[in-house]
Amino acid sequence: MGFIARWLVTAIAVGVAVWLVPGFTIVGGVESWVAIALFSLVLALVNMSVKPVLQILSLPVTFLTLGIFYLVVNTFMLYIAAWLADGIFQVGFYIASFGSAFVASIVISLVSSIVNSLVGADS
């Protein structure tokens, strides 16, 4: 799947997570769709560059937990993307707690899977 398609799927998933998950909100004076697009860009870049390294480093723990720790890795990707988006684009995403980030990562994963299956793209 091309990067633009991955970015659009991530933007849809982040929009749904912002809408559904309390504690995962946009802060600042930027329009909400612009903030979601910029955050999704950062999240897609982080998922392509940092996430494979963290997956390999956490492989023993992921194996022991039968794959559940993979959701924790996704949660950390949200924290890294929020920190980078705030630092680079001054687009703030407020993450209230680890629990809200954890639920948001589950929502983003599910919505991304559903949208990918609808458009026929492989992830």
From TrEMBL:
InterPro entries: Phage_holin_4_2. Keywords: Membrane, Transmembrane, Transmembrane helix. Pfam families: Phage_holin_4_2. The keyword ATP-binding does not apply. The chain crosses the membrane at residues 7-27, 33-50, 62-85, 91-119. It comes from the Bacteria. PANTHER family: SLR0284 PROTEIN. This is Phage holin family protein.
